[in-house]
Amino acid sequence: MNFFKKNITDAGVIKFLSDNPDFFLKNPDALEKLEIKHETGEAVSLIEKQVEIIKKKNLLSNTKLSEFLSNAEYNQQLFIKVQKLVLQILNEKNIEELSKLTEAFFEKELGTEICKIYFFTQEELFELSNERIITPEIATSIFSEAFNSGDLALGGINKELSSMVFGSKANVEEGAICKLHCEKIAGTLALGSSSKGKFTKDSETLFLEFLVAVFSNRVDTIIKNINA
Length: 228
Hints:
It is a single chain. The protein folds into 2 domains: 1-91, no CATH class; 94-227, GAF domain (Beta-Lactamase). It is 51% helix and 12% strand. It has 8 helices and 5 strands. It has helices spanning 10-19, 23-26, 29-32, 46-91, 95-109, 136-143, 159-166, 206-227, and strands at residues 114-120, 133-134, 152-156, 174-179, 186-193. Strands 2-1-5-4-3 form a 5-stranded mixed β-sheet, sandwiched between helices. A hairpin with a 6-residue loop joins β4 (174-179) and β5. The chain is elongated, with a radius of gyration of 30 Å.
């Protein structure tokens, strides 16, 4: 009995063959003792098995490349649309019209089901319509929970918040509630969907946060020009 016999593990065999890639060239008889079975149970040659593995790897690589190109094309189209909106925002001199064109952009250009922009103020200022104004007291009761963990709330929306923001007929299940970053007036930009999966908590928000920042900055500029 050999007390010094060492058990050979699968990992050890793999490492040995990796370190000696010409092993089967030097020992062709070893190939005859290999037994490789297909998923169907039929025996196949080593070469056939290698070809099968290579095909699977190529298919996976092609799939990943296709996904990458599709995402790149989508992001390019999105960038062009966002660029168009930014130019429109920078040229707008009325907050009410600015809000309307931004809402229309999300709904028509980005396919958002519903977009609503509100401002929190006590009276009609800056030529805002009554429908776009929420008093600070009501706004606090509506949005305090949504913004308790940050300036952007994603995910499911309860019926009370949905009805107040989007209207009772909208039947919104999920949304993105964004706090505006204006210096002179508080407000929110809200996006809603009647189906789940559109605004999950792990959704990418880079473009949304960028647009909220540009919109907020333009509102401040318009207000400064009014008071100048």
